[in-house]
């Protein structure tokens, strides 16, 4: 995760989209060489780590709610079974993460499943990422929170598209006081942070084992099209 609410945003260059889509061929974004999030998560995903490539339950829940066509964007994807699920369902998927090790794992599994053509792997720091012009049927992010990233992600949702997000809540800090507050959702978030006009399909705290507080919250919300009455007025 990252804590960079004050960092200014720079557009990811088109050249790097191409270069980093070759992550499984060993290309890396040199700007992230010493980035602490890259180093930390590369260490986590390296060595003996064995990804399950199980789709996240939130992604499974989101898929039937999507418009019939349109690409998917997954942020902080890790070695994501959700990206593979969407690609196998015929969606073009852009998967972004700071960890080239995670992207290599995902890229190799996509190749094994014959899904490479459907996937663009982008190694980027989400603190400086902006979505560009493309609009997505689904913007998915699980186990990551940064309010500025959420704001940018919501802006990247297409008409009728869905944003699906899961993150830790403030309750997680009771058991882990070292957890930075900006990595955790406050009361009512993230639904309360959506731009006007989104319809919240569901927001709930993920049940925890008995006697333990719920520490994660999931959101599914849809962007309705720009109201035709307002369009007509323009
Ligand atoms: C807790 S893992 C979640 C992975 C996956 N979304 C899941 O639900 O299993 C957090 C992910 O965020 C990525 N990450 C952390 N900081 C990042 C940053 N600043 N920019 C991009 N990705 C980042 C990590 O590499 C890691 O894959």
Word description of this protein:
The chain has 234 residues and is of the alpha/beta class. The protein has a single domain (14-233), classed as Rossmann fold (3-Layer(aba) Sandwich), CATH 3.40.50.150. The protein is 27% helix and 21% strand. The protein contains eight helices and seven strands. The protein has a seven-stranded mixed beta sheet with strand order 3-2-1-4-5-7-6. The longest helix is centred in the middle third of the chain and has 13 residues, at 100-112. S-adenosylmethionine is lined by residues 1-2, 37, 41, 56, 76-78, 80, 97-99, 102, 125-127, 142-144.
Strand order of the largest sheet: 3-2-1-4-5-7-6
Associated small molecules: S-adenosylmethionine
Number of helices: 8
- Give the C-alpha Rg: 17 Å
Assign the CATH topology: Rossmann fold
Q: CATH superfamily name?
A: Vaccinia Virus protein VP39
Q: pLDDT under 50 segments (min length 5)?
A: 1-26, 228-234
Give the overall pLDDT as a whole number.
Answer: 88
Secondary structure category: alpha/beta
Beta-strand content estimate: 15-25%
Helix content: 25-40%
CATH architecture: 3-Layer(aba) Sandwich
Shape: globular
CATH class, please? Alpha Beta
Quick synopsis:
By secondary structure, the protein is of the alpha/beta class.
